[in-house]
Amino acid sequence: MDKIVSLSRRRGFVFPSSEIYGGLGSTYDYGHYGVLLKNNIRSLWFEAMVQERDDIVALDSAIILNPKVWEASGHVSGFTDPLIDCRTCKLRFRADQLEQSHCGRKPSKHPGEWKECDLTEARQFNLMFQTQVGALEDESSTAYLRPETAQGIFINFKNVLQLARRKPPFGIAQIGKSFRNEITPGNFLFRVREFEQMEMEYFVPPAEAERWYRYWIDERFNWYVKYGVRESQLRKREHSAEERSHYSSGTTDIEYLYPIGWSELEGVANRGDFDLKQHTEHSGTKLEFVGDDGERYTPYVIEPAVSIERIFVAMLVDAYDEEVVADRDRTVLRLHPAIAPVKAAILPLIPRNGDMVEKARGLYDELRKRHIVEYDDGGQIGRRYRRQDEIGTPFAFTIDDHTLDDDTVTVRDRDSLAQERLPIGAVRAWLEEALERPWRTPKA
Ligand code: ATP
Q1: Does residue 6 register a pLDDT over 80?
Q2: What is the best residue among 189, 197, 271 to mutate for testing ligand 1's pocket, by most ligand atoms within 8 Å of CB?
Q3: What does the pLDDT look like over 165-199, one tens digit per residue?
Q4: What is the mean pLDDT of the chain?
């Protein structure tokens, strides 16, 4: 994980937030390549979940909702983690994670293992951030930053059912920020207090719930494989009855082998009719499906839920590679071309040569209309290749002496380092075809 954090920092993917003020625990800002990588993850999720389907529509609900939403959903009373304080070192721990926590004394042990440790009883700590709406700071104006995007979907069930003229099975997908006041955040972006969730609620006739639950586990698993994550580093883990939320009749985590061990990347849950029934009861608005023939029922909900942050870390970890090429170390991000922040680099071999620069800039201007590409004329060609390798750019087009004679360029492949020559006029079509090709990582 240290190598990923350091590369992210060095190449401007991710910065610790508020750094000039000493930072804010587990909060990060994204630099240029981080933004591009996040955009790709977001749009490929949207493509698979909405654009390529007839049965799912999009939604963008507010972050601050009527606080009654969170009473109905059970978050006000139950969205808690058990918290323990140490009166000696003043640190806080999750009572259910003492084995994975480290106490403040050196050498570090688990909380409670030093004789000086003075732990409080566990108490329930609500993870929702509170805020005030309006100018009056009385209780009636207390509101919450949403801890998940799902509830914004449930409360819009009726709107979508009517206006999008849908009938089960159909889904509503949403991408947006969620906030949780995690007690023990950490492990880089894996557990942060502010993250971007991508959730889809799929409403189905109750008798079909089990089938769709299995379907969505497979669909989501295969999405990761399609975008190059090694299957050996992914697994499905079904929750036991004790681990599941009380309303869930099935939950499966898609786990990734992060440097911290197998951990939840994405969760897929069969939430039954719990959410729609709760909101029906608390709001007085019937959230159910009524068919043309008078058939009436509350649909069950299957939910795949993930954050961009957990995908971001998994993809960087999976792509990170080091090798020695011609006696020199090379760090390379072997990202799927569709995920890579920059699709191609355009490099004039000799930056002082005006003709090469002109040709290179011409090609850059042509490609940038359609793709995120980068022009680089700073320093030796070898160093420029290395810089692109580190940010995972799959292809580099080099303009050299031959280009001036015969209008061909060299294309270099990030993974195999193979080079071939192409007519400059064919580069755009070649790149588009290359970005569409199925890709498998050469990493073992
Ligand atoms: P965990 O057990 O790891 O706290 P969770 O089971 O509470 O996660 P869910 O409530 O199921 O998580 O949230 C759905 C998804 O949102 C998770 O699978 C994960 O991808 C993402 N997620 C949840 N909490 C965080 C967080 N603090 N930082 C980054 N991503 C998160």
Answers
A1: yes
A2: 197
A3: 788 999 999 999 999 998 877 789 999 999 999 99
A4: 94
Output the pTM of the full model. 0.94
Residues with CB under 6 A from ligand 1: 180, 182, 191-192, 195, 197, 264, 266-267, 305-307, 309-310
Specify the ligand 1 atom closest to the Cα of 311.
20
CA of 229 to the centre of ligand 1 (A): 19
Who's near 440: CB < 8 A, 6+ residues apart? 228
C-alpha of residue 271 to centroid of ligand 1, in Å: 16
The pLDDT tens digits for 25-41 are: 889 999 999 999 999 99
CA–centroid distance, 306 to ligand 1, in Å, is: 7
Reported confidence tier of residue 415, pLDDT bands at 50, 70, 90:
very high
Residue with tokens 């889809």: 200
Least confident of 3-17, 85-99, 146-160, 248-262: 85-99
**36 alpha carbon – ligand 1 mean position (Å):** 23
The ligand 1 atom at the shortest distance from the C-alpha of residue 182 is 27
Ligand 1 atom 1: residue of nearest CA: 264
pLDDT of residue 139: 67
